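Record type: monomer structure entry
Structure origin: computed from sequence
Chain ID: A
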Amino acid sequence: MPDGQPLGLRERKKLDTRRALSDAALELMFERGLENVVREDIAARAGVSVRTFNNYFSGKFDALAFRQLDRVRRTIEILGSRPAEEPLWEAITAAVIGPMEADALADGNAELRIPTPEQLGETRKLIAAPEMRAMLSKGVEDDLIAAIAARTGTDPERDMYPRLVAGAVFIAQQAAIEIYVRAEPPVPVNTLIRQALATFAAGLPQPAP
């Protein structure tokens, strides 16, 4: 919500519907496989009509991308509220991890669940899909650049720094997810994201042989 204002009842209901549809799409992907997920079944699982689904999402990839994009938007809000004296990468890490852990608690889990091999297989298909990559690039990068510029006292139009940091944040998340879906044994994705951001915070040193 702009300016950190609380959501009204109507906006909250819309957000709840979006989340329910996104969660339904993810559940069906894990149960049936990505290629077998269709909007009719997503709507039925969420308890709404197909027309309602179409009012919120253009298709299954749009629905599947929503949760991640929502977390990025919440990351931007959190980053703007972190203490001004906090080091930049500490603030960024708290802002990135916060929404993930909040979602886990809201789902009744103290920690992010370890995925099954089957779930990881479907997630690998999802992140490799061009449609998903296109959805995840929609409309959040500029907002993150602006938030980093505000925090660092730089100009997003003239200074390279906020763009470099924002790019590093997205690359850290992407790299962590790529390792997450291939890790053996599986590890929580938030652990990998923390490691990736810490590596950037350290100046991206070359690994020891």
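Annotation 1: The chain has a mean pLDDT of 91.
Annotation 2: The first helix runs from residue 9 to 32.
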